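so my prof wants the structure for this chain in the tokens format not the other one, which i didnt know existed until like an hour ago. anyway here's the sequence
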Amino acid sequence: VRCVQETGTWGYIQGMNEILAPIYYCFANDGNREMSEFVESDSFFCFMSLMGEIKESFLRQCDSTVRGLQARIMELNKLFKEVGYELWEHLEKNNVHPQYYSLSLIHI
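here's what i got, hopefully its the right format
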């Protein structure tokens, strides 16, 4: 909801929590008591900065663009094939499409 207020163009989209959660966790558990009152605002600032760079992954109208989700899935699949060929081949033979396992990895 706050993203809409800040940018005026996009709101919450499924998967954004996977981006925010580790950022918040790091700030909330860094052990610095002096900064503990700024956990939410620091997390929000970092989240918004990161989303400015990766928002195309969340916008349906960008799915087929060079920076969109489909392109990123293809890039990850190519890398996966190079690095873990045996597992990639097993998944391919069993019709486990990259869309099933790529989304969480891309958002991390």
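also thought this was worth mentioning. The longest helix spans residues 39-54.
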